[in-house]
Amino acid sequence: ISELIAQFIQAAQREEEAIQQCRVKAVNRQISKTDGIVYELRRRGAERELLALLEHPCQIVRCCSAIYALTIAPEVAMPILEDLVENTRGHIAAKAGTALRIWKEEQQSE
Asked: Residue 80 — left, alpha, or beta (φ > 0 → left; ψ -120 to 50 → alpha)?
């Protein structure tokens, strides 16, 4: 499990690097990697391990982990995303804001 968490952190950080370099295909590759890692954590019943990353010093890691954590702990993940929207700029604020908007829309439609 710890190896998967390390891979998640690395993929999130590489996603940020690719965004900063405007490398769309690389961004998509890293998002696919984080999706696959989360799938594997779920399969192993260890998805809650992502919650520890909500306090990670790297903003993109907090953002990515909070987005996935919306499905298991929205009461913890939403404040993280809201904080990122209010206190960051650029792609991290946009990613967090988009995730919150989609999450809230999905909750209203249920």
From this structure: alpha
Q: Indicate the pLDDT class of residue 13, thresholds 50, 70 and 90.
A: very high
Residue-averaged pLDDT of the chain? 95
The contacts found for 5-9 with CB under 8 angstroms, 24 or more apart, are: 5/49, 5/50, 5/52, 5/53, 7/33, 7/37, 8/34, 8/37, 8/38, 8/50, 8/53, 8/61, 8/64, 8/65, 9/53, 9/56, 9/58, 9/61
Q: Dig out the tokens for 23 from the structure.
A: 């490398």
Q: pTM above 0.90? A: yes
- Report DSSP state, residue 45: T
Rounded to whole angstroms, how far apart are CA atoms 26 and 22?
A: 9
For 51-67, how does the pLDDT look when each residue is reduced to its tens digit (9 = 90+)? 999 999 999 999 999 99
In 3D, which of 80, 60, 85, 61 has the Cα closest to residue 70? 80
